[in-house]
Design brief:
Strand content: 5-15%
Oligomer: single chain
Helix content: 40-55%
CATH architecture of one domain: 2-Layer Sandwich
Largest sheet: 5 strands, mixed
CATH superfamily of one domain: Ribonuclease H-like superfamily/Ribonuclease H
Strand order of the largest sheet: 3-2-1-4-5
């Protein structure tokens, strides 16, 4: 399936099943949507999720509130994550650690997290719908969709599962590394995080390969 030419004006009001329906009609039983969360954070892992939705005529109605996770509040994400897990034919979440990010770079680590998410799915995917990426190491047909989390319901669902899984992990890491406010900012470079770094310095889960950490841009 070739990637359509991107036209921002063609982004639908809500994510839909156009790409999934085309694949189902073409005989692909299990298209999987993939997305990530945490690529831009300064600390913690990057997360990815894979979601395989069933060819259910009522699915769009059942998941009517699912959006790109960045467009949703935390309570909305938690609610719809449970609905996604209940409705999906299969789903999986994978992580790549801060150390793997420093070793592989954020793109390589994101692809690793996506591959791990696929491996944790209960079904073998037949085609990948990915938000703006391809997985060169995965021998499956793939479609990279710019703004895919706004266009494909499978990708939007994956964005919600990735985000909620990573947020839950950062809340746990907040207890292990107190003082940084990880549960609040989830490792992103907010003013609160910068102030904590200026006061405490980096901890064991900071991404030291990221420019702000290397340059110590958080100092006064």
């Amino acid at each position: 399936m070739r990637t359509p030419r991107f036209n921002r004006a063609e982004i639908p009001p809500v994510p839909n099943l156009v790409y999934e329906q085309a694949l189902w009609a073409g005989g692909v039983a299990h298209p999987a949507g993939l997305d990530e969360a945490g690529r831009g954070a300064w600390a913690g892992p990057v997360a990815a999720a894979a979601v395989i939705l069933p060819p259910d005529s009522h699915l769009a109605e059942r998941l009517a509130g699912v959006r790109d996770s960045k467009q949703m509040t935390a309570p909305q994400r938690e609610h719809w994550a449970a609905e996604i897990r209940a409705a999906a034919a299969a789903w999986g979440v994978g992580f790549a650690s801060h150390a793997e990010i420093d070793s592989l770079g954020i793109l390589g680590a994101t692809r690793l997290a996506m591959t791990r998410a696929l491996e944790r799915c209960g079904l073998a995917a037949g085609h990948l719908l990915i938000d703006a990426l391809r997985l060169p190491g995965v021998a499956l047909p793939q479609t990279a969709l710019i703004k895919g989390d706004c266009r494909s319901l499978s990708i939007a669902a994956a964005s919600v599962l990735a985000k909620t899984a990573r947020d839950a992990l950062l809340a746990e890491l907040d207890a292990a590394y107190p003082g940084y406010g990880l549960a609040r900012h989830k490792g992103y470079g907010t003013a609160l995080h910068r102030a904590a770094l200026a006061r405490l310095g980096p901890c064991a889960i900071h991404r030291m390969s990221f420019a702000p950490l290397r340059a110590k841009l958080f100092t006064d």
